[in-house]
Amino acid sequence: MSATQQSRLVYNDPTWIDTLAAWVLALLWILPLAYAVWTAFHPSEYSTRFELLAPLTLDNFARAWAAAPFAQYFLNTIMLVTMILGCQLVISTLAAYAFARYEFAGKNLLFALVLVQLMIMPDILLVSNYKTMAALGLVDTLLAVGLPYFASAFAIFLLRQTFMGIPRELDEAARVEGASPLQILWRIYIPLARPVYTAFALVSVSFHWNNFLWPLIITNSVGARPLTVGLQVFSSTDQGVDWSVITAATLMTSAPLLLGFLLFQRQFVQSFMRAGIK
Amino acid sequence: MRSVHAYLLLLPAFVLLVAFTHYPAVATLIDSFHSTPKGARPAVWVGLENYQVMAGDPVFWKAATNNLWFALATIPASIGLALVMALWVNERITGRSFLRMAYFTPTVLPMIAVANIWLFFYTPSYGLLEQITGAFGLPSHNWLGDQRTALGAVTLVAIWKEAGFFMIFYLAALQSLNPSLREAAAIEGASRWYYFRRVQWPLLMPTTLFVMVNAVINAVRMVDHIIVLTRGGPDNASTLLLYHLYEVGFRFWDTAHAAAITVVLLAVLATVAFFQFFLLDRKVHYK
Lengths: 278, 287
Description:
The structure holds two protein chains of two kinds.
Chain A: H1 3-9, H2 16-40, H3 59-67, H4 70-101, H5 107-119, H6 126-136, H7 142-146, H8 153-164, H9 168-176, H10 181-192, H11 194-210, H12 213-218, H13 227-236, H14 243-263, H15 265-277
Chain B: H1 2-31, H2 49-55, H3 58-89, H4 96-108, H5 111-122, H6 128-135, H7 150-175, H8 179-188, H9 192-203, H10 205-221, H11 224-229, H12 241-250, H13 255-286
């Protein structure tokens, strides 16, 4: 058997055609982003002219930062994702623990009612939820942006699966020692589920950092707008033509996520995988 | 006593789920049979009138057909690309970590931000796309401003955004396949294509179903890029159902009409849920 045939049979070596195609696709995939980086870091007369020696500048970022209250938007988004994540973790941990380790009447029905939210996300029920927020007097507050997402069916489902995989013996041993159910949850279940918490946290933060339609509807002032809405307000008003400033603002709003992703690429990818398999 | 504990643990989650998922879903259904309350005039029962208005509205049908084409294009294209990407980066290919990063990056970025970048990309006369087509001597074309190409242009952005996300799930599934299958196939002298068709593809079936359900949901849910790129235009050429709902509900404030549209979306999602249960039942038999 010849060497080339051998290597083909173990399927380990993609042919040069695969490599070429994979690279072409990858370059196409990052082309819009690379273009945005080029435009944002060069003076606007170079925004559509590609010269290797074009001068670099941070001026576009400074102008974008000065043109809209981005500091406030950043603060809003950071508070928003922190608030949502905190509430999601507490609320779904409690619910998942109940579903994983308690027997009670209507358990299956209640679990099915939780799963309904996997299909019908708050995004679809905009009109009705807006009315609810108006009735509660919460329109144009950060709380209203976050509230519909505090109970996450996805988190409950994910944590329930994880908790069910933890051996009951640990639980019983702790109970013999006189630990209360909440102590058992805190001391045994939560520490053992830590990788799942990390996975969910990354997915949740990137989802809510990027969320747009609901915040757009429920907010109408600088004090409550998250970055995505702020960016849209900024770029759709009369900045319309200055692409250098708009791309700079765009990169600025995505930068924390992008940097986080590049630094913790492995965790990100594994988290998304873990969240998807369960 | 134990069950009282359980109910207490579930209480916070259920208060919120009922308030923001179950109640609004039911309230929307009820609202769709009532008129829009205006000032002192309360909502009155109007039967199917909202549905008749909706069905008589050509914009609704435009949005529904657009959404169907959008789904028919994004679902197979993003899943197909995701599978090919995953098969590539699962092997020892040159520059594997760069390739993974390049494919996955669009997923992490906010749609609203990348849509701005694509808007620039598509800009007539000096956007990058125009510069490329111009270099080949092709005539200038306003991709987002032309009724024939607007929907295609926004569909492309959606595929670009989604494919890397689905790739992750395929990659995870490929990595969990038993390596001895590959050795067995090698010993039998199976071709790479045969190995894919007879071993990898059937074993990836549960992942494909999972990804497909997500792709369908996304086809209903993705509108951020429409708001940035076209606002449904020109002349509703690129409007989708959720964008239409947003316009009716929050630009024209016709909440009863919007409720009827929401019911249509809920019906679509309920159908998906039904198929998922049906298909997941079949999946169990694989194991």
